[in-house]
Prior knowledge:
single chain; 116 residues; alpha+beta; Alpha-Beta Plaits; 3-stranded antiparallel β-sheet; binds zinc ion; DUF2007 domain-containing protein
Amino acid sequence: MLIPAAHYLTYAEAVQLYNELLDADISALVKTCGPPSFPFGDGIWYQLLIEETEAEAAHDIVADFEARRATVAVIRCPRCGSPDTAPVPHPTWWQRLFYAGTTLYRCAGCGRKFAA
Ligand SMILES: [Zn+2]
């Protein structure tokens, strides 16, 4: 019997998890789920179905994948490597001009300002 291993994945996530499971010799079935997307009628999200007998083997891979999905990318300071950085709330006019199209960050560790 097929059981869902993960759902509400984007297409890119579904492909990545599918490949990770495949590396562990677990073949998954990718299906759409969620509300249908206009005009194609398929769901806008993807889910991965696996054989119930392989659920135990897949559990760690899926759990690891879910943990990485939930992790927000951390922006690190290019000088000291500290992850304690935050966008500068009110850049001056020349900073806005100079860093146009990027976000100006300030490192709480060493005070360096950098664009990301
Ligand atoms: Zn720093």
